[in-house]
Amino acid sequence: MDRRAFIGTVASGYFATASILRAQQPERVRRVGALIYLAADDPEAKLYSAAFTQGLQELGWTVGRNLQIDFRWTHGDADRVRKYAAELVAESPDVILAAGGSHVGPLQQASRSVPIVFVQVTDPVGGGFVSSLARPGGSTTGFTVFDFDISAKWLELLKLIAPRMTRVAVLRDPANPSGTGLFGAIQAVASNFGVEVSPVGLRDAGEIERGVTAFAGASNGGLVVTPSGLAIVHRGLIIKLAAQLRLPAVYPFRDFALGGGLLSYGPDVVDQYRRAAGYVDRILKGDKPADLPVQRSTKLELVLNLMTATALGLNFPQSLVLRADEVIR
């Protein structure tokens, strides 16, 4: 064999061996944390985590191969939020998914460098999570669920269904900046609909039951449930109280209407988790959260529950039924 042929043979063998060794080396596993306000066994929690995981899988990430996701479920407990936020940051993840404004703040307090992608946040600028929607700055970005002008729509829907209504209890989380903001926005337009509004806290089941029961002591009342992790955690109790006390109520998410609530008007939350997977993918591939604009919800859904309306002695106008995205019969 001449010298050139010998060198070619050796080189071919070297590159073939190198290719085999590279193929045998395991892929680098990236770590993603997730701080969610529900209990792990909540049906909605399973939908959210499945949508997020599937979204990442469609982008080439597989749990157990090149991805590890560490979920923490807080079940609306403020002490757990702080504890799990610190735990997740201590594990040095590549990025953390945060559900709701009450979870973003503690994560930012634990670290200003770990990238955070949030979902279900109403006012990230007012909450101090980002500098602006277009240019978030820092290490945090994500997806908003509502603009404050939806407040007028909630009151309009309630007044359309219960025209004699003159009083509205607004269930909101006072510890969540968006809860205070949404209550203020509802209060600002209440006179346009001829109603007075009263706040009811969501800190725990006892506060909800006492507040709603006391409000229902007078006639012509209705409920507006603003979005928060606590509202979703206690959705079963809120829906039950509204039925027992015969209060027409409007809810922020579809699962409330599916669970027996009168009607809901708000975004598709599951879709937010799918879209969040896209931002997590981009950060894992090198993009900076500061360069990823905060995105708004693209579609709002109106869901009506005719069975609940009948039980309350109410009728949905036909025009509203025709506009609904879903009608539960």
Please specify the SSE layout and strand pairing:
Elements: H1 3-24, E1 30-36, H2 43-58, E2 67-73, H3 78-90, E3 95-99, H4 101-110, E4 116-121, E5 140-144, H5 150-161, E6 167-172, H6 177-189, E7 196-201, H7 205-215, E8 221-225, H8 229-233, H9 235-244, E9 249-251, H10 254-258, E10 263-267, H11 269-284, E11 300-305, H12 306-311, H13 318-323, E12 326-328
Parallel strand pairs: 1-2, 1-3, 3-4, 4-5, 6-7, 6-8, 8-9, 9-10, 11-12
Antiparallel strand pairs: 10-11
Query: What general form does the structure show?
Result: elongated
- Rg from C-alpha positions? 24 Å
What is the CATH superfamily of the largest domain? Response regulator
Class derived from helix and strand content: alpha/beta
Helix content: 40-55%
Strand order of the largest sheet: 7-6-8-9-10-11-12
Q: Secondary-structure element order, as H and E?
A: HEHEHEHEEHEHEHEHHEHEHEHHE
* CATH architecture classification of the largest domain: 3-Layer(aba) Sandwich
Q: How many strands, what sense, and barrel or not for the largest sheet?
A: 7 strands, mixed
Helix count, per DSSP?
13
Mean of pLDDT = 91
The low-confidence runs, each spanning 5 or more residues with pLDDT under 50, are 6-11, 14-18
Could you tell me the number of beta strands?
12
Quickly describe the structure.
By secondary structure, the chain is α/β, with parallel strands linked by helices.
